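Researcher: Here's my situation. A collaborator sent me these components and asked whether they could plausibly form a single complex. I don't have experimental data yet, so a predicted model of the whole assembly would be a useful starting point for our discussion.
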Amino acid sequence: MYGYAQNKDDYLQRLRRVEGQVRGLHRMVEEDKYCIDILTQVSAVTRALESVALGLLEDHLGHCVAQAIAEGGGDAAEKVREASDAIARLVRS
Amino acid sequence: MYGYAQNKDDYLQRLRRVEGQVRGLHRMVEEDKYCIDILTQVSAVTRALESVALGLLEDHLGHCVAQAIAEGGGDAAEKVREASDAIARLVRS
Amino acid sequence: MYGYAQNKDDYLQRLRRVEGQVRGLHRMVEEDKYCIDILTQVSAVTRALESVALGLLEDHLGHCVAQAIAEGGGDAAEKVREASDAIARLVRS
Amino acid sequence: MYGYAQNKDDYLQRLRRVEGQVRGLHRMVEEDKYCIDILTQVSAVTRALESVALGLLEDHLGHCVAQAIAEGGGDAAEKVREASDAIARLVRS
């Protein structure tokens, strides 16, 4: 069980909504909607995904990483490293 | 007809793929996959969406904005303003 | 003369302010300030720089790119391409 | 003493370099350099600042946050929350 388990239903619902938004983008292109309106909608989808990612990350730090630290094994430093790499990918994408 | 018309099929295909990636994210959460693996996949989807947006923007500048400028009416300044706002939303999201 | 010439003094002033903010960051590290407070300040500097970039870009589109398009030579497509590459670098950084 | 203390000299050196880069941007505007060249340089400065922020964040997670968790007090959850807010500001800026 991972950190996001407690909010699993919420994440599933948000990702379902993002899937619908992407389908909406597809429809906009198909129906030749105005470029700028499509771009506005792409920004909204990106923000929704980012928000899911930030939630997952906070759950991960507060559970998986916290547990590794609390257990005091050599795993803690590796978990911090791994989380930092994920943060870097988010910041740079 | 807007700037992206010439690449419409390509955009439709890429958005279909993004939709599949989001569905894949939903499945990862459903199957309790590891947080970091989900985050890696979110970054990939975000980058794919960004790439669609950058393509749409270039098509928009090269066609819709260029046409407004070439026609020389008062519409040109407004088009540049509108595109700049869309760019700001992309940069900040 | 480039697109930003009309706002040159404004840009010079904003960049002087950013320089001061970076010097402030240096001082915060030197004086062992709290990590999170330094990070908050880094985000502020990044946003200030982004805002300068978005301004320069809008001036560039409205002048340099618009002029190349209005002149109707083969230079226009190249200018749009070049601006699009700069936008991509901003979005991805 | 905070998490970045061990790398303090490195951070001071990098921030000094960023300060020089911002001064370089000021000079480019003053000397009427080409917009796109200035934008390329702004992206480089933004990336350098982001890299400092990601380093500070990793040090913070590995020391300040890890210590709060290891001490097991009620402070741990608050530290994770605070770090997550800082990450959100970085991702959105």
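Model: Some features of this prediction you could bring to your collaborator: Chain B touches chain A through 46 residues (CB under 8 Å). The first helix of chain B runs from residue 8 to 30.
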